[in-house]
Amino acid sequence: MQLVIASGKGGVGKSTVTASLLYLLKDEYRFVAVDADADAPNLDLLLGVERWEEERELIGAKVARINTESCIRCGICQERCPYDCIKVIDGDYVVSELTCEGCNVCGLVCPVPGTITLEEVRSGVVRKTTTRYGFPLISAQLDVGRPNSGKLVTEEKEWAKKLMGELGLEHMIVDSAAGIGCQVIASIGGADLTILVAEPTPASLSDVQRAYKVVQHFRQPAYLIINKADLNPGFTALREWAEAEGIPILGEIPYDRAIPRSMSMLKPFVEAFPDSKAADAMREIAEKVREEILR
Amino acid sequence: MQIAVSGGKGGTGKSTVAINLAIALGEHYDLALADLDVEAPNDHLLLGVELSNEEPVELFMPRFDYSKCTRCRKCAEVCEEHAIITMRDGTPFLMPNLCSGCAACEIVCPVPGAILPGKKLMGHTYLTETPYGFPLVTGKLLEGEERAMPIVSRAKKRAQALGKELLLVDTAAGTSNTVSKALEDSRLIIAVTEPTPLGIHDGELILRLAKLMDIPAMVVVNRSDLGDVGRVREIAERYGAEVIAEIPYSENVIRSYVEGKPIVLSDYPEAGIFREIASRVVEFLGGGE
Ligand code: SF4
Ligand code: SF4
Ligand code: SF4
Ligand code: SF4
């Protein structure tokens, strides 16, 4: 089974919840974990990973380059670039590598053949390790300024699938990126179900509703975990929304200082502070995941 | 002139800093705030306003007129996104989800009228007046659409068109090219980070991006009592940036966040920290009244 953990936005504790869930499931199930937030991966840090066993470069992004020698400075490329990525610097037309989407429109409209070329550049790395808890982790890191395409995530999931075959694993657990863009779509697409993590604030509710629309788009069941549940007692809209949509709530984790402290220790909080309130709640959630999801 | 608030990772309090800074800077400049975190825009929620003046962001999408198309496949060959597939006889078909709207296919098609300019809706931009004396421009990507770039670039243009003395941009988390697009043209980046290992790791990435873009950066450490601010200082120094403020973890900040009442306008002691950040920015930019 392929399950995804998503939140619509960072900062609600999705990765800390994921790390603890993985920790609690590790003895009973054989799975591979995938950190699909290639823009800001952190599951490796939360699981205390110190080195990668294998790393693959992903060449796939493209950026345009302008040859200033043959350029006649007509400005057509700048006019036609759909994303405003061409600037004039000291009289030369220059592509901003950090924003170019690699669509090649500039190359097509340039009247001087060969002046604009599309070059392949590295978009990032995909990497694998075995965590100290025994299960493998696939992660990725997008290079600074590259298009945030779903390709890295697709690559990660393919690697994870291969690994499942080789090692005879039953499940793939994907920690999705923040937001609702291509990485999230690549994470949720093809999965069996999504567990949403949200906190009781208007911002988090709005974000998780947007993520849920992506889940619905793929016609998958969704579950909800409420984190920092006691943060905002007057705010009931998150719970009401879940009930109205028929999204089962797997549990509520109270705000607990043990969580930020465990993060600095680079350990899942259920491992670092097994006696904390948050750990109790997390164990109940893991129990429900066993009974209702993984069975 | 433009400045940006950015943060390596989500949830570091970037939007909280952005809206409070906007309010504090409003005393010095005629400004606009642009929320370019288009996958999860939240500044309006923190400011307690409803988005208004919606404008659609539509992108070009090819429509084929098969009575004219000669099945030459040129459109499919040129599409970098592989959004056009061709049948064995060369008939082109579009997979709309992959299309980026760049119009390259239309440019190369040798038959006038074979490719018609269809449109698809990618999201919206909004222009909302706030009770704090400055307008908020928001970009919002439609759920299920993958491409944030067009929304970021359109929302930014809409904000620039207001012609304000200062544009304060709130970017998405991370360091992808949509973040670079939001940061572009900034005179200063305020990087919001946390002193946890995760925050430090991601904070370093945003400083690296600032350096690559040749934009000076200042660092604001949020939840500063939850980790080692010394480590943040070390890294900031390595990138020639200065830590200008530390905001301790505070129930007051959370309360004001939850209530949609900006803390800078409260009597809580944290209000002073945001004023201090604002005065550092004013000092750096010069001018203002
Ligand atoms: S490849 Fe596309 S995005 Fe890049 S500069 Fe050319 S037209 Fe602009
Ligand atoms: S279109 Fe070609 S020749 Fe004209 S400015 Fe751009 S690169 Fe130079
Ligand atoms: S508009 Fe661009 S991305 Fe869309 S089909 Fe045409 S070439 Fe491909
Ligand atoms: S380039 Fe124009 S004529 Fe050629 S296959 Fe595409 S639509 Fe048809």
UniProtKB/TrEMBL annotation, chain A:
InterPro entries: 4Fe4S_Fe-S-bd, 4Fe4S_Fe_S_CS, CobQ/CobB/MinD/ParA_Nub-bd_dom, P-loop_NTPase
Pfam families reported in the protein's UniProt record: CbiA (PF01656), Fer4 (PF00037)
Transmembrane segments: none
Gene3D superfamilies, per database record: 3.30.70.20, P-loop containing nucleotide triphosphate hydrolases
Any GO molecular function: oxidoreductase activity
Annotated ranges, domain 4Fe-4S ferredoxin-type: 62-91, 93-121
UniProt name for this protein: 4Fe-4S ferredoxin-type domain-containing protein
High-level lineage: Archaea, Methanobacteriati, Methanobacteriota, Thermococci, Thermococcales
UniProtKB/TrEMBL annotation, chain B:
GO molecular function annotation: oxidoreductase activity
Domain 4Fe-4S ferredoxin-type: 60-90, 92-120
Alphabetized InterPro entries for the sequence: 4Fe4S_Fe-S-bd (IPR017896), 4Fe4S_Fe_S_CS (IPR017900), CobQ/CobB/MinD/ParA_Nub-bd_dom (IPR002586), P-loop_NTPase (IPR027417)
Gene3D superfamilies (UniProt xref): 3.30.70.20, P-loop containing nucleotide triphosphate hydrolases
Pfam families given in the database record: CbiA, Fer4
Name by which UniProt lists this protein: 4Fe-4S ferredoxin-type domain-containing protein
Species: Thermococcus cleftensis (strain DSM 27260 / KACC 17922 / CL1)
